[in-house]
Automatic annotation (TrEMBL):
Disordered: region residues: 1-20
Classification via Gene3D superfamilies: 3.40.50.12500
Name the UniProt record assigns to this protein: Uncharacterized protein
Amino acid sequence: MQPATSTVSTRRKAGQAARSVPAAEMWLGKPLILINTATWWHALRANGIENHMEGFGRLLSGF
């Protein structure tokens, strides 16, 4: 059985929302990907930058 997925909307500013991702991931038990974070991650990888950043969720810390 596939786990359910959902969309979460927030009115927080991008920086505030990005800093709350690790706590939200722990609470939900699922990865949480913000569009600004995903765009930034893609831009870094597309330019050959493989740095990882802690404190902004699984996408930036592990991929």
